Amino acid sequence: MLKFKEMNGLNINRNFLSRITIILLLLMAVSCKKDETNKIFTNASLDAVITEAETLLTNSNEGTLPGQYKPGSKKELQEVVVWAEWKKENSKAEAELDDAANKVTIYINKFKANVVTLAIPWIHQDVGTCIKVSEKTGTSVQSLTNQSFTIEAKFYFLDLAQRGWCNELFCKVTDGKGFEVRCFGDGSFNFAVGIGSDWAQQTTAKNLVKSGEWVHVAFVNEITKQTLYVNGVEVGSQTATYVNSRNEDPFTVGNVLMWGSDRVMNGMVKDLRFWSTARSGSEISTNKDAILMGSEQNLAMFFPFNADLGTEVIDNSGNYKASFIGNVTWVPNGIPPVIEIDYSALNAAITAITTLKESITTEGTNNGDYPVGTKAYLQSLIEVGNALKTSSPKQYQVDALVTNINANLGLVNAYLVADANGIYVDREDPKSVGLRITPNYTPQGDYTVEFDVNLKTLKMDGTGEMFNNGEFGIWVYGYKEITEEAITKSGGLYNFTSSSTGWTGPKTGSLVMKPGNWQHIAIVHDNTARTTAIYVDGIQYAKQTNIGVPNVSGWGEIWLGNGWGKMNGTIKDFRLWDEVRAVGDLDATITGTEPNLKIYFPLNKVAGINFKDVTGNFSAELKGVVWQK
Fold it and tell me: Which three-class secondary structure string do you get for 300-353?
């Protein structure tokens, strides 16, 4: 019994010890796991890049001068350093620290590259391109232009040739209000201020500026007097009471965002200064080349524009920003760029025309033929292309010609001889212009102009011209709003004629023209009786007495379907006679050899893009309009 009890006690002790051992092992496992969780990893690479970043932050300066770091660069790098320090304390694996070190390295390299470099903005001569200046918040500079002010800047013209009406230097305008300074290809300057509903302006002598050299321009507006200085010398002044433009009208440099936005200069600009006072001539002359600190008295805005700061630049006062709109680029080191024209697309277009021309073996009048004159037309395109290459063109001129050639190349292949029902002028398509007839002709005695027209609609803002040679023609009145009153007032015709007594001519009542129907229109002038009448489908709808012949036109062409405003519809069978046609002879079947028939375009057969009339004396060219098949 005793032996049994001893053995039993031993078993109990063994069980107890086993349980204790298991518990201790579990506690050790938990303890080890806890130690692993609280482990602080270290990474020499991360420590090194953090130290490098902190050294850069300590020893670097931000600013807008070449060699300084761009504003905002230090803030970005500092944020990455703070993040890296947090990552050191919270990483769960060594790999996370490696990733953090890589990220800091990337931002260090980015910071090092974010150095301000010497550069000057180049305003390319593209439509809509400019530098737009506003308050930093994006609002207008209206408060600066409500009082006397002086604007100065230096310009370098790569080319004085104008794309639009002028080369705009700077402005803030709306119709009849605001101010602007511009120059022209002859080297003259012009400055203007709005006086409420019109402009007061002065143009200087020529040759005050040349391409390829810097010029300093200063405009002083004293509200009731304006003065312009070029290179510190007064070149013009005027007395006029200036009316400021609207608050929403932007202050722009290098272009004016009105009137087509094509008055854009081609050159560089720097040292833009806006003073909130009228500077004297001596102040301008003495300080035009002075290096400003930006804190000078009355200096409200200052853009040195001598360092690449991106496409939105804050001025030295910190209150204004310049936004690059369109094609404005920084020129490294301020060295004027050498403009190289890319002729590759033009050469390819000329090659394509040449290939097509050589492939045409016959021209004819049968359906499916290339119209007579196609090869001559293609040759004219080749000659135009080659001539442009020798005329020192602008890139936009080359590109525009390529677009035109390629479009016409497609039309040549599309417009093989076929039956046609006139040419269609689409008022809604900006590329649709009209049928251009050359040379122009203005009758100086009896005359009759007649044609067929099928208007698509009268819904148009204003009038639609069916025929115009610049001194006489005919239009139809349309309507803009779909109201009973507007519609019932539309559809009338007016034969406008500029004669020795001014603009005159017969006018019909409303609703004469019926959209969707072919109608024959005739203008008949009897110079002996001094009368002009309008006929529609052989019925006289208007007649005016005591009217002479039109003044001889200075236009180089006659237009069908356009002039000052497009019609919307199809026109055919155009005839101009040097005689009074009897009512019974209007719209008669003719051969084209009749006496006194001056111009005759039947437009009943596809004849290509450029073609002759039946008399052989006049040419027509489709300008964006299409054959109606």
Answer: EEEECCCECCCCEEECCCCCEEEEEECCEEEEECCCCCCCCCCCHHHHHHHHHH
Summarised one tens digit per residue, pLDDT across range 133-146 is 999 887 789 999 99
| pTM, two decimal places | 0.63
CATH class for the region spanning 423-627: mainly beta
Burial of 253 (0-12, 13-18, 19+ CB in 10 A): buried
CATH fold label, 120-332: Jelly Rolls (2.60.120)
Amino acid (one-letter) located at 93: A
pLDDT tens by residue, 549-586? 999 999 999 999 999 999 999 999 999 999 999 999 99
Work out the mean pLDDT of the chain and round it to a whole number.
Answer: 91
Structure confidence by residue, pLDDT tens digits, 218-250? 999 999 999 999 999 999 999 999 999 999 999
- What is the Cα–Cα distance from 567 to 557, expressed in whole angstroms? 18
Q: Which residues contact 2 (CB under 8 A, 6 or more apart)?
A: none
At the second CATH level, the architecture of 44-113 is: Up-down Bundle (1.20)
Residue 220, burial from CB neighbour count under 10 angstroms (0-12, 13-18, 19+): buried
**402 Cβ neighbours under 8 A, 6+ residues apart:** 345, 346, 349
Domain residue spans of the chain? 44-113, 120-332, 344-414, 423-627
Stated as kind and residue range, the H or E segment containing 134 is strand 130-135
Q: Are 120-332 and 423-627 in the same CATH fold?
A: yes
Q: HSE on the CB side for 82, CA within 13 Å? A: 6
Q: How far is CA 221 from the centre of its chain?
A: 29
| The one-letter amino acid at 480 | K
